[in-house]
Amino acid sequence: MSVAATLSPLAFAVTVHLLPPPPIPSNFTATLIDNQTVLLQHAGKINPLVIDTFTESDHNDLGFWHGPSSSLPAENGHGYVRLFPSDADQAYHTQLGPTSCFDMRSYGQMFLHLVFSGSTKFSISLNQHNKECDTGRGPFLETWDSVEAERYARGNDIYVPLNHFVIDHSRAVSFSFHGFFSRDSLTLYKVEIVPDVPSDFYVPPKLENGKLFLHCTRPNSFAFGIDDGLPHLVPDVMNILEEEKILVTFFVVGAGLRDKESNFSHVYKEMLEKGHQIAFHSDTHQKIEGLETIKAVDEEIVHNMETFQRLLGIQSRYFRPPYGTVGARTRQRLAAYIKEPYIINWSVDVEDWLWKDSNTPERQRDAFFRDVGRGGNLVVMHYLSPSTVQYFREFIRFVKSINVDIMRVDQCLEDPNGPPFDPRGSEVKERIAI
């Protein structure tokens, strides 16, 4: 696939130019809302659904759990919750059901309405359960879609068309508020689903964004997504891959490729020649969603792209957010530069970041087998420690022993632009620039 066909809305030789974010219209009138008359005619048949008025500390108005992630300070009051965020990974959830699937299809043409005060610098997500609607299976949240609160906020109200959350609405789980990129407090007073919006309220169009994957979609497939590594461990990793005859996906940071001492540009050129997939992992491995400005978000994406083009001669549609931190701005800005980007998290975490240099490195094995046992099939791991590399062959052989096919991430997601999968062991040698 050519670079020009991959990137949108511009192609480049070496330099990618930063794109401005879409402007917020100054005239917030209902006449600017596309097809609102049709939407409201359909939506009027369904009664509003009050989800949360924060009158109880441990459950919402539907009787189900709501609350912050363990690291998010929150003040519970009668009729509000006030959040004091300090990290983009922090989140507040309010559930639609008892952790099973909640069918929202009858509300499809209605609107999520929030009454709030304070910060608008966060993301709003609608979360989707796994196919079994089983909290014991992994991943528990199969995917989610996010919008940027600031785009939909006017005064103390936010209205978001539910069809702006592109997930399977028959398997909804919860709404969440996360991706904070300011330490300003946020106070929530009401979360509800309503059939219409005030006549003078402007609802912006849905922006293109990347689709988020935590799980392979191809039946009987399994993929290792390998992130950062250490140069001296490269030979061991490559020997294992060669001897086990499998292909994997490497998510690569731009700054590491530019480091001449690491020799990573040569390493990943060799990986490409052997048929492995090389994909984006940001420029400097920061929590992109937590960056203060759009310019800073864009630079992490664009410089990663520039480095791939200059040093490897390729581009990619695949991106793994550092630390798995992803919100609306990251997804939207990826889609501004890359047509239909794939955003890749995971359902199997080896937890090498936690255990690799501890007194119990074998906990990496425990984490792998735990997550695979729950149904996970898309891995995050690193080659930053000999202990992780030591277990890598065992992981591969276990997956083979249960008759599951190991392949690249693009193959396990059935990407028609990816190389065909050869179950006998890939002999793909040509470089595939996707």
UniProtKB/TrEMBL annotation:
Bilayer-spanning residue ranges: none
Keyword terms, alphabetized: Carbohydrate metabolism, Cobalt, Hydrolase, Metal-binding, Signal
Matching CDD domains: CE4_NodB_like_6s_7s
Cofactor: Co(2+)
Domain of life where this protein originates: Eukaryota
Keyword Signal: yes
Gene3D superfamilies: Glycoside hydrolase/deacetylase
Domain NodB homology, chain residue ranges per copy: 220-407
InterPro entries given in the database record: Glyco_hydro/deAcase_b/a-brl, NODB_dom
Keyword Cytoplasm: no
UniProt signal peptide: none
The protein's name: NodB homology domain-containing protein
